[in-house]
Amino acid sequence: MYDGGVCGKGPAACSCSDPGLPGYWVNTATLNLVVQDTEFATSGLGSDVAFTRTWNSASSESGMFGKGWSFAYESRMRSSGDENGTVFYSKGSGQWETYIPSSQVTNPDSSITVTYQPISKGRFDKLEGIFTGIVSQSYYLIEEKRSRLKYRYDHAGTDAEGNQVYRLTSIADRNGNTVVLAYNGDASWPV
After folding, report:
1. Is 188 among the domain residues?
2. In order along the chain (191 residues), what is the average pLDDT of each group of 10 residues?
3. In a domain, 42, yes or no
4. Which of 75, 155, 173, 191 shows the greatest Cβ crowding within 10 Å of its Cβ?
């Protein structure tokens, strides 16, 4: 059942209309058109689930649904794969944010937890990277300040520029209720 409040939470946090009734926005300075629609949404224990797609006429990115399209759970991170690098965070809406390391702690198991700060002002989401010394076992956690949802990004491979890519694998609420995303073997599509 659709819950009109679902679109206000999650990786693509937006205020959207009822499913099947897309929202349209035009940036009058650039004439950039953005179209967003939620085709399905449900809520229950844990975080809400919404199948929200966004098309941006200015985007050169190619997502699961083609050029200019982004999907709420297509969120990902890119980094150098170590504790000293900048992290580029792509939200499911297609918006990118940049984070830089601000502090680090060595854990009893010899892993390193790095806390990052956003470059842009006004962002208060908490980003941490946990580095084990093995890139494929390292991951990132981002906690949204408003919803307190925690998003986990696990290593998914290397992009054409040599950056390590981390894809969204789970979303947990403050009570530990978790939505887990599973991917096909080729890692291109959530199951």
Report:
1. no
2. 39 53 86 88 78 84 80 85 82 83 92 91 83 87 90 91 91 90 69 42
3. yes
4. 75
